[in-house]
Amino acid sequence: MTFTEPRSADVSAGPDGTAVAGVLALRYRIAAAAVGGGPAGTVTRNYLVEDREGRRWFVKSYPPGTDLAGEREALALGEAARAGGVPVPAVLRTVAGEVIASGGGLSVSVAEYVADAETAEGGLSGGRWAAVGEAVGLLHRVLAGHPAGPPRHVPAREVCDVERAGRRLRESLGLWAATPPPAESFAGWAHRTAARRLDVLPEVAARLDGLPATLTAQFVHGDLASPNLLLRGPSVAALIDFRPPRRRSAAWELGRIVLDPRTVLACPDNWIPGLARAVDAYRAANPGLPAEELVAVPRITAGYLGCSVYPLSVPLHDPAALTPALEAYGRARHEAATVLWEGLEEAEGALRDLLL
Questions:
Q1: What residues does 119 pair with on adjacent strands?
Q2: Which H or E run contains 138?
Q3: Is 197 helix (H, G, I), strand (E, B) or coil?
Q4: Nearest to residue 10, comparing CAs of 53, 59, 49, 56?
Q5: What is the pLDDT of residues 269-296, one digit of tens each?
């Protein structure tokens, strides 16, 4: 987790920082002594604030047009997980009891700052595999009891939708047909990769026949990727940035975080025993998820990557969002899918020996 430490003489961090300090004073009764830049958000602008009593807060500023109702639901989901013992930073409410404050053209939420933590973007290793598996298992067990509704079973094809992937890939290739991008650019790589991915979709579909007929869908974090998992040594410090409540496959979310492309590529010869440790810890924390779904985690993850058009479509639909980090992540996703497919039988065999 990286950020710009606030400086004691800097209570503004520019015009936006001045506005943030004003909202905090008016709506939260927080007197900001320093406002600094926080970790970059995908959409939001984030700040690290130190108040005059030395306490530090993480402040998320939402751009105009944000679905604030959805963001309130996401914060409430995180609060529900925290109430069940999941390591989620506490949300600070305004003096009026709101989770998001709006005023002066600015909308913000405030949470406790997680000190001495780093994101999981460097990959999992050692005791972190089991710690992450346990944290995700606890999260899913808690959210399975969400008052909005219990888990339900959905066709596995809804999790890895080959037909939808085919439509979206053909759409992208059709848009590129008129003006092919420069071969040396990321758009050029994305164009070639989209074409290759479309060609191998029948093979992906055949491999997905090995999934259980249905998968358990329930309320989950929704965006549990490495930047939203904070680690402190071998332990999970916090899960952050929940998305609004939506039922998704629990096995999909487990695979998404423990088989993050950055982790798989960081240890291409060691991800299978790491996965087994994570799944074992997950099952101990959440014994309700069927063992056959846990065995299917690597197949679900590889299939999902094979059906994904993100971020291949970004050069077409949102070129301004392209960054060197996103380009590297896109290449990593493609490479990691190959590694997962190559090790699939060994990985599933290790999980069967563990679970069945």
A1: 230
A2: helix 128-143
A3: helix
A4: 49
A5: 899 999 999 999 999 999 999 999 999 9
User: What's the rounded Cα separation, in Å, for the pair 66 and 58?
Assistant: 19
Q: How far is 192 from 197, CA to CA, in rounded Å?
A: 9
Residue whose entry in the numeric block shows the structure tokens 């925290």: 82
- pTM for the model: 0.93
Cα angle value 77/82/83 (rounded, 5°): 95
Distance CA 87, CA 85 (A): 6
What are the tens digits of pLDDT across the range 29-53? 999 999 998 887 778 899 999 999 9
User: Token pair of 319, please?
Assistant: 């070129």
Instruction: At 252, list the tokens.
Output: 């999909």
Q: pLDDT averaged over consecutive 10-residue blocks of the chain (356 residues)?
A: 40 68 95 88 89 96 94 97 98 97 91 96 95 98 94 95 96 94 97 97 97 97 96 98 96 98 92 98 98 98 96 95 94 96 97 96
Q: Is there a cis peptide before residue 155, judged by omega within 30 degrees of 0?
A: no
CA-to-CA dists, residue 273 to 130, 169, 333, 337, angstroms: 11, 34, 20, 18
**DSSP strand E in the chain: where?**
32-37, 45-51, 56-62, 91-92, 101-103, 106-112, 118-119, 152-155, 214-219, 229-232, 235-239, 247-249
Pairing of the two strands 235-239 and 152-155: unpaired
Decide: 267 and 340 in contact? Cβ < 8 Å: no
232-262 per-position pLDDT tens digit:
999 999 999 999 999 999 999 999 999 999 9
What is the torsional sign of CA 24, 26, 29, 33? positive
Residue 226, CA distances (Å) to 61, 113, 127, 245 in order:
21, 18, 16, 20
Q: What angle do CA 335, 339, 340 make, to 5 degrees?
A: 115
